[in-house]
Amino acid sequence: MEKSPYPGKFIVLEGLDGAGQSTQTEILAGFLKEKGYRVLKTKEPTGKSEAGKLIRKILDKKENLSPKKLQELFSQDRKWHLRNIVIPALKEGKIVISDRYFFSSFSYGWAEGLSLEKLIKLNDKFLLPDLVFFLDVEPRICLRRIKKRGRGRTLFEKQEKLEKVYQNYKRIIKKFKNLTKIYSISGKRSIKKVSEDMKKIIFSKL
User: Fold this and answer.
1) Which domains does the chain have, with CATH numbers?
2) Rounded-to-integer distance, Cα 162 and Cα 17, Å
C-alpha cells in the first residue's frame, strides 16, 4: 500500500451497514462542491465491473460463494474501481469521496473467519486514502435503522455478524492509524452534527 502521488484527495467513509455512510457521502460531496471544489462521489462494490455485479448478487443472497472467493471478487472490483474511476479523478485534482473501501473487506472478511494478514496482502497494491472516517454506530442501532428502510437484509446484516465486524473495525483503525489519517465519528447523533464534525476535520487536515 502506498500514499497517493496524485494532486487530488481521496476520502473514504466506513462503518457498519446502517451507520450512515451513504447519507454523509452525499452531504459532504454537496458541501465541498458549494465551496468550489471539484468532487467525485463513488462507492464499493461498484456494481459496474463484472466482479462488482456478481458481488451484488451474492450480498443480496441470489448467489452463493465462499468467503475467500467473495473477498477475491472485492479485490478485483476494487482494482477496476481505482483504475477506471478513482485514479483518473485524482489525476485531475478532484476530491474523491468513496462510500467504503478496503477497510470494509478487512472487517467483514475477518468476521467470516479469513486471516487479516491474507486480506491485507490481497489489497496491498492499492492506494491508501488521504482521510478515512469511521462512522461509529453500534450494531443494534444499525439493525434498527436497516429495518426502518423497509427492505430485506443483505448477507452481512445479522446481529452476531455485525458485532464481530464492529470490533474488527476498531482493531483495524488502531492498526492503520500510523499509515493514514483515520477518525472515528459518533454516528448516533443527528445527521447535521455528524456532518459538521466531518467538515471541520476535512478543512483542518487536508
Assistant:
1) 2-205 (3.40.50.300)
2) 9
For residue 5, cis peptide bond before it (omega within 30 degrees of 0): no
Q: How far apart are CA 113 and CA 184, in angstroms?
A: 25
CA distance 28 to 1: 26
d(CA 177, CA 199): 20
Could you count the other beta carbons within 10 Å of the beta carbon of residue 69? 12
Segment 25-73, tens digit of pLDDT: 999 999 999 999 999 999 999 989 999 999 988 887 777 789 999 999 9
Q: Are 114 and 164 in contact (CB under 8 A)?
A: no
Q: Is 25 exposed, middle or buried (0-12, 13-18, 19+ CB in 10 A)?
A: buried
Position 152 scores a pLDDT of 53
Taking the CB of residue 91, how many other CB atoms lie within 10 A of it?
Answer: 13
